[in-house]
Design goal:
Elements (H helix, E strand, L loop, with lengths): L9 E3 L5 E7 L8 E8 L9 E2 L3 E7 L1 E6 L2 E6 L3 E4 L5 E4 L6 E8 L4 E3 L2 E3 L6
Antiparallel strand pairs: 1-2, 2-3, 3-10, 4-11, 5-8, 5-10, 6-7, 6-9, 11-12
């Protein structure tokens, strides 16, 4: 049974204001699901992107905003947001403090930003 400790978890800090910690994925012993911890500093937003599978964000602390097709939805600690398949969206932190969430998706998920499609590195 695979166990991923906080010390051993892979960190992805490639974008200012964004911290992703890979928890479960095929490379970490999970065959079907991927999960990662996400922290966004106030004012930070993802690039506009779409997904070929659902992605669920469970908010642990703060407030997360999901904007899709001109519709803005927000959830705070204890709530969740579900990113729809195929629609371009962004997630952002409207503040005032950081937002911490756990995101989950099927391990085969692919993202598209502009004309580039790829498997998010924390989900493989």
């Amino acid at each position: 049974m695979p166990v991923v400790t906080p010390v051993a978890a892979v960190r992805f800090d490639d974008h200012p204001g964004t911290n992703v910690i890979g928890l479960a994925s095929p490379s970490r012993g999970s065959a079907e699901l991927s999960a990662w911890r996400l922290r966004l500093e106030p004012g930070t937003a993802s690039p506009a992107h779409s997904l070929d599978r659902e992605e669920v964000f469970v908010i642990l602390d703060g407030r997360l905003r999901l904007t899709c097709d001109g519709v803005v939805e927000e959830a705070q600690a204890g709530g969740a947001l579900i990113a729809p398949v195929g629609a371009e969206f962004t997630i952002s932190n409207p503040g005032p403090g950081p937002v911490d969430a756990v995101a989950c998706a099927p391990s085969a998920i692919r993202a598209t930003v502009g004309d580039q499609s790829f498997a998010p590195p924390w989900a493989v």
